[in-house]
Amino acid sequence: MIRFFADLQDIDSFAGCIRLSREDADHIHSLRLRPDEHFIVCNGHGIDYTCKLGQREDVTVAKIVGQNRSRGEPTVKCSVYIAYQKGDRLDYAVQKAVELGVYEIILFESKRCVAVPGDVQKKTARLQRIALETAKLSGRGRIPSVTSGGMFKEIIKNAANHSSLLLFFYENESDLHIKGILDQHFQPGNDFTDEKQNSVSVVTGPEGGFEPHEAEMARAEGFNIVSLGPRILRSETAPAAALAAIMYQSGNF
User: Fold this and answer.
1) If you average pLDDT over residues 235-241, what whole number do you get?
2) What is the Cα–Cα distance from 28 to 55, expressed in whole angstroms?
3) pLDDT digits (tens, 9 = 90+) for 200-237
4) What is the CATH number of the domain that holds 144?
5) Can you give the residue range of the structural domain that contains 116?
6) Phi/psi of residue 65, each to 5°?
């Protein structure tokens, strides 16, 4: 079913209507939806409204016919920190991360980044648009944010303060594998009612990988330095692989 997102101030639960943006209204009309056809409007906070076309004061609105919690939101809150990459690699990384259930995406600059955008604000705005469109297509109940976290040292400290499970993926790590860490963290009986306890921070590197001293900085902040396996993954593939493993182990598949 086709999906749209609306701001909370545009949802009038008492009147049973949702004011659609001009862009969404035009999209609906271009699809030639019949008055009895249903579509979804999400409030961006995990609530889906089943709607059909309505009219109010010469403005196209969504008439609410039912509501329920979004099924597309995972129980685990996963923040993914992705190093800047060249070309369209970040497009792919953001798209797949949203599909797999990421909570937020934070971009950062590390020592071996091949390319850092000159206009960071323009870059993040474009990636946020990709996150929006992907959230619609993949049935998400919220739109993950895409922001710039600055330099490597800053994002490491920020992540350490917000999550109970810290994962730093390093291609030179050979002893500690992601499966062992996830088996231990998500074992039955652990209490995940606390928001921080149920939060995971994932850090993946640029095309050139991480410098050894960066891995040591992460270790000093409490990160688990882990491997994704014996094969070297591309920089845009690593976030998706890490998220898939986390979602599987936490019961979100």
Assistant:
1) 96
2) 13
3) 999 999 999 999 999 999 999 999 999 998 888 999 99
4) 3.40.1280.10
5) 77-249
6) -115, -5
* 174-198 burial: b if 16+ Cβ within 10 Å, else e: eeebbeebbeebbeeeeeeeeeeeb
Q: What is the pTM of this model?
A: 0.91
Give the pLDDT confidence score for residue 48 in this predicted structure.
96
Cβ atoms within 10 Å of 229's Cβ, excluding its own = 11
Q: Residues 6 or more apart from 78 whose CB is under 8 A from it?
A: 101, 102, 103, 199, 200, 201, 202, 243, 246, 247
Looking at residue 49, what is its pLDDT? 96
CB 154, CB 187: distance < 8 Å:
no
Give the integer Cα–Cα distance in Å for 145 and 106.
8
Q: What is the pLDDT of residues 121-151, one digit of tens each?
A: 999 999 999 999 999 999 999 999 999 999 9
Residues 6 or more apart whose Cβ sits within 8 Å of residue 186 = 249, 250, 251
Phi then psi dihedrals of residue 79, to 5 deg: -95, 130
In terms of Cβ atoms closer than 10 Å to its own Cβ (0-12, 13-18, 19+), residue 146 is buried
What is the per-residue pLDDT across 31-63, written as a single tens digit (0 to 9) for each? 888 878 899 999 999 999 999 987 765 567 899
* Distance (Å, whole) CA 111 – CA 27: 43
The whole-number average pLDDT for the span 179-195 is 77
Same domain, 15 and 97: no
Query: DSSP state, 66?
Result: E
Q: Residue 104 and residue 39: Cα distance in Å, rounded?
A: 26
Residue 60 is part of a domain; what is its CATH number?
Answer: 2.40.240.20
Q: Where are the beta strands (DSSP E) in 84-223?
A: 104-109, 145-151, 165-169, 199-204
